[in-house]
Design goal:
membrane, globular, 28 helices, mainly alpha, single chain, 60% helix, 705 residues, four-stranded mixed β-sheet
Length: 705
């Protein structure tokens, strides 16, 4: 299918169910609704999978459409029950659309989305391009499993045995549900569907989420709708170029689920904060901008979301957590720190009191939806908390520089020769402007708290107070560090708009200028200047980052030799037979593309399922080890897939530490297999060999068999 149509299908799946749900929950149309929609769509997809699983129906686009239609019917009923409110809201939306700052801000948000999307689309190339990074092995495989079987409920994923579907080993599935539904709409091709959803969720959703959080922050601080939309526009553009979270997680590990959940966090936080925005008609505060500027950029002080909108916000939070459970911590820490910062001002305390009932509704909905979403994975929380840190301790000066210097670092710049200096400058301006405004320091407080956590993690990885937070992120700096970046676009947007307003006020005192238009012009000039220089440079680096894992990969995990082996095996394997493999090569695509069951789905094996890693370690001992031979016979392993040219992977955290700390390329049990009894080379293409295994030809069972 044409890539453009796949993108359309991905956008429909990622947005329509969520928009329908949010409309039913009376979330007003606008930027916040658009930003919350992808997370809400994940929630709708998750509930759909939970509903169809007990009755034996498959999850897919038909089931998702049915549930979305049911929610839509409820939305229509709610609207018809309140026709006057519907007419008033329609007039308000029409009036707002006529305001120039709102239009300009909306265009700015779209430009930010376009910058981010270009980097991903250009870096991936054709949507059929297969990702080469490590964790994408599992993401592609799980999407294929949901697409092929229709099993998408949390307790059905991920299957240890692809042939029987049991047992299962919890793996967060929100992204895979949307990708599987997209594949179902586009002919069943998994890779194009997953790649399209990757672009939608990391580029479009990431930028609109940052924009929505910037807009809500501006309204909390007393700015009008027009000014808030300008803040949103700047935030969207800044987010588009940030290397963290999405780009570094995908480049350095293919950590798609956590990358998506982090991209959805700003929108979820914005939804929570919007439950307490001041009611319409409240007092307008002065600030950097004069009253005339405020009035021009202001239709009304922000109307708080209705209490029932808490249901939509709660569903969106659940959707983000459905993508990755750590999102619950990301949202909670950010929101609590933000509210604490706002509470230093009377305005902020009033907003918090106003939000209580809506927050109660949101918390209730979130709790109900998360019972099936993360309940099956609670047993793995200790494993996450005990994961070894991925960095060593560093001196304080370096910890401070790493945290606040916005360096690229990681595998794309291991020597740290580049940093996103313009982002740092805008953040510093934003911090100063928000503090000087004296209406609460919510975004500054949230930024400070996450900066403190990251600095603590640099100083003493895996220990100390900061470890209470980092334990939910595998004590991985790769994941934790990203939270500082999530708040940078908000502070940057506030800094640009507040300073522009201040300069416009000062200019009006000396020149015959309309301050409102002068402020708008200054913000526009700043936006164009950032887009023409820093943003272009950041986008080029982003495109290279994506391309080196997709279109022009630095290493190859799945390639032409694998394609030849997959085609050969598809013609020779018989029903019920399994292929023994190491997932650190192209063998997982046996199932993705042909539905051929493989023994191993995860490169290090699965905790609690010993054969998945013990066979990787000791397969070559089957002639003399009765336990190994018995396990192979029980699994009906008839074929062995070996690629001797695979990328190196880390082995920290392997079950029972079987792989040691130094990593590997080819699993130890698959080395030097030529000449073993009962094992015959059946096919070879380049570095890939398929062996036929006949356990009966090995000879009598050794002692203990």
């Amino acid at each position: 299918m044409d890539d453009a149509l796949v993108f359309v299908a991905a956008a429909v799946v990622a947005y329509v169910p969520g928009l329908v749900l949010l409309a039913a929950a009376s979330v007003p149309p606008g930027l916040l609704m658009v930003a919350l929609a992808p997370a809400a769509s994940v929630a709708v997809a998750g509930v759909t999978a939970v509903l169809v699983a007990p009755v034996g129906l498959p999850f897919g686009p038909v089931a998702l459409l049915a549930v979305t239609a049911a929610v839509g019917a409820a939305a229509v009923a709610v609207r018809l029950a309140r026709p006057r409110e519907l007419r008033v809201r329609a007039r308000r939306v029409l009036r707002l659309r006529l305001q120039v700052p709102l239009v300009v801000g909306s265009v700015m948000v779209a430009v930010g989305v376009a910058f981010a999307s270009w980097a991903w689309v250009a870096g991936i190339g054709p949507l059929a391009t297969r990702p080469q990074e490590h964790d994408m092995i599992m993401h592609v495989l799980q999407t294929a499993y949901v697409t092929r079987t229709g099993r998408g409920a949390p307790w059905q994923l991920a299957p240890v045995d692809l042939l029987t579907g049991t047992p299962t080993w919890f793996y967060p599935s929100g992204v895979h549900l949307l990708a599987a539904a997209t594949a179902g709409l586009t002919g069943g091709a998994v890779v194009p569907a997953l790649n399209a959803q990757t672009v939608v969720l990391l580029a479009a959703a990431g930028c609109t989420g940052a924009a929505a959080l910037g807009a809500v922050a501006a309204r909390q601080l007393g700015l009008g709708r027009g000014s808030a939309m300008l803040v949103a526009g700047v935030a969207s553009l800044v987010m588009a170029g940030l290397y963290r979270p999405a780009l570094v997680l995908m480049h350095d590990g293919g950590i798609l689920a956590n990358a998506v959940s982090l991209s959805l966090v700003p929108a979820a936080v914005a939804g929570v904060l919007a439950l307490g925005c001041p009611a319409s008609g409240g007092p307008q505060h002065g600030g950097f901008a004069a009253v005339r500027v405020q009035q021009s950029h202001h239709a009304a002080i922000p109307r708080a979301l209705p209490i029932r909108a808490g249901a939509g916000v709660g569903a969106s939070i659940a959707g983000a957590v459905w993508c990755h459970p750590s999102a619950a911590v990301s949202i909670a820490v950010t929101t609590v720190a933000w509210w604490a910062g706002m509470a230093v001002a009377p305005r902020g305390r009033a907003e918090l009191r106003r939000a209580v009932r809506g927050l109660a509704v949101a918390a209730g909905v979130t709790a109900v939806l998360l019972v099936p979403a993360v309940g099956p994975g609670l047993g793995q929380s200790a494993r996450t908390a005990n994961w070894p840190p991925d960095t060593g301790p560093v001196p304080f000066y370096r910890a401070l520089g790493e945290t606040l210097g916005f360096p690229y670092s990681g595998w794309i710049d291991p020597e740290q020769t580049r940093s996103q200096t313009w982002v740092l400058l805008l953040v510093l301006v934003g911090i100063g402007a928000v503090v000087a405004l004296r209406r609460g320091i919510g975004p500054v407080a949230a930024f400070a708290v996450w900066s403190a956590v990251v600095i603590g993690a640099w100083l003493s990885p895996g220990t100390g107070v900061d470890a209470l937070v980092t334990r939910f992120f595998y004590h991985a700096m790769l994941r934790t560090w990203s939270h500082v970046y999530l708040l940078a676009p908000v502070l940057a947007g506030l800094g640009v708009v507040l300073v522009a307003d201040r300069v416009a006020v000062l200019a009006r005192r000396r020149l015959p200028l309309r301050a409102s238009w002068a402020a708008l012009a200054l913000v526009s000039v700043a936006f164009v200047g950032y887009a023409a220089a820093p943003a272009v440079g950041y986008a080029r680096i982003a495109e290279v980052s994506v391309a080196t894992r997709y279109r022009t990969p630095e290493f190859v995990r799945i390639g032409p030799d694998d394609d030849a082996a997959i085609a050969w095996l598809a013609a020779h394997i018989r029903p019920g037979e399994r292929v023994f493999n190491s997932p650190n090569d192209g063998s997982t695509y046996l199932y993705v593309e042909r539905g051929i069951p493989i023994v191993n789905i995860y490169t290090l094996g699965l905790t609690g399922v010993p054969y998945t890693y013990r066979l990787l370690q000791t397969f070559d001992t089957y002639p003399t080890d009765p336990a190994v031979r018995r396990q192979l016979a029980d699994l009906d392993v008839r074929w062995v897939y070996v690629d001797t040219d695979t990328p190196a992977i880390g082995s920290a955290g392997s079950p029972e530490d079987w792989a040691g700390p130094d990593g590997f390329r080819l699993a130890p049990g698959l080395r030097d297999l030529d000449g073993l009894p009962g094992l015959r080379e059946a096919f070879r293409s380049g570095s890939v060999t398929v062996y036929a295994l006949d356990l009966a030809a090995v000879g009598p069972q050794p002692d203990g068999g």
